[in-house]
Predict the 3D structure of the following.
Amino acid sequence: MKFEVPVNRKKCFLFRAKDYCSLMKPCFFICCILGVFPYKVTSSTLKFSKLGYVYSTFVTSIYVIHVFIYLYQTDVSGTLQYDNVPGTLQANFYYILGTAVAIIAYCNTHSRLLFLEKLYIVASKLPSKTFNELSKFIHAKDIFGFLFLIGQMPNVMSNSLNQTFGKLSGMYATLIVFIMDMLYMNCTCVIKDCFIRINENLKNLQLILVTGEPHLLRRVYHEKNNPLLLMELKAIKKRHQQVSDILQQMNTIFGSQIIITSLMTFAEVTFSLYFYILRTVDKKEVSLEKQIWYAYFITSVAYYSIKLSLIAWACETAKNQAAEVGSRIHEVVINTTDKDIKNELQLFSLQVLHRDNTFTSKGLTMDANLLTTIVGSITTYLLILIQFLISLNPCKSHNNTNEAF
């Protein structure tokens, strides 16, 4: 699998990307370390790497096997035990969902390469200035987010060897979910800028039609009804089709992963807040020996909330840019009297209407409404857990009273 992109490569640095490869380089590098990027990136190619695939198979297999062993020790043999049922449920959710992301990432290796190839080709038409502006945000979140998670590594060490390996598995699950989410967000940002570029081209086309600058003076070109404008419009229409196809392909490849990310955010934030309330209100110390986080309650809630908010923000802004294309087309239609251009704009408008350029994940729409839904669900289930906690305390008090008599 190989493709060529005719781009002028320049020396680039962090936060100053010049093209697609330099923009995605930190994310690709972290993916290689974690074994979810068995590809080789060169100056103008992105191709499959057999050595990288072997490494990816080895890392994923070792992780999955160890997670099964850890779950057997906690749920079956009882070698490792948590203090209470909510703690056990949280651990099971965390390891199962993290393992699902690792397996999905491994199974989508080939389809993800095809997607990145197509995105590479479309993104090559963006100017260097766009990549430079994008890199300040993308490089910052990828690097500082990864360093933040690596900073929790000293908390992995424990007196028990089994517990240490369990924490290592939890850390790997956290890292792999993080980098796959960052890859999804990076691709979303690139797609958003592709739609922004399409809107800018339509705006320029509208300006030209209003001012009448492109109308060639020679009669033969008047008879052809401005062929240069028509060619430009068809090129814009083709780029919109390509970007829309890439968006739908991304929804298919990353759909299951984003659902798991949303579930993991819901579970972790809910359990973290519950344990915080349990320790604050009930004055009960919660054992944090099996957690990978420093300042568990604060860092866990903040990390998952910020991560999902950034993903939802990227999808929401990209969706708005995609929706703006239709408005731009109608503005151009109003400002032209050329019959051929109007016909092409009408076809373009029909194309936009038939393309649902929203970021969905197996029926779940990734936008600002998702955050509202998750916050409401967290509040509901947190109240349910608190009610169980309140109802449990009178039962304990009643039992203690009977024992005294």
